[in-house]
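Many introductory courses stop at the sequence. We go one step further.
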Amino acid sequence: MSNTDNLFSPRFFHKDVTIHKKERMFKSYFAMDSYDVSYKRFDGKESPIVTRELFERDSYAVAVLAWDEKTDEIALIEQFRPGALSDPVTPWLIEIVAGIIDKGESTVQTAIREAKEEIGVNISENDLFCFKTVYPSPGCITEKVTLYVAKTDLSHLGNHGGLESECEDIRVFKAKLSDAYEQVLHGRINNSIAMIGILYLMHNKEEVLKHFAK
């Protein structure tokens, strides 16, 4: 193990956390759980028991950056997000395809389904490259998101998507990857999952191409 690897290696693991109590406080479209926990500290002592409320989806999520390598374009969506109501410009955010894993689904199955539902694009497992799993806001949310780049043909991309049954109203469009990258830098694209996907593909395009060439 290199010195760098040792620097980033975990110091603690699940065994170093004690869950004294867990209680479901609220359940509707989403849920809220309360945890009483203590954990090992870096000074060798045990922390006091702290109470923390966590936002629960009761499922993890998947995100898909649909990319047409022939034109170097990506599919983007725009939709209303109540969590962005305090945004100084607009609560309609620019994002990439994403959704919750349904019961019994794999992450791949969710990626395929969400690409069809949100942007009307058909993809298969062979079109997917998994590049990262992230925790968007682990201080208060248990959500974990698995991210994919999808090799797609965007030549016939429509302009509207989403499911009426889920009250989704989604504007669908495509843009050059370089233009989307500029919008990340300028702040118009400020959805964290979209930012991660665009930044990753912008700087790791050769790795993605090698994967799909196998």
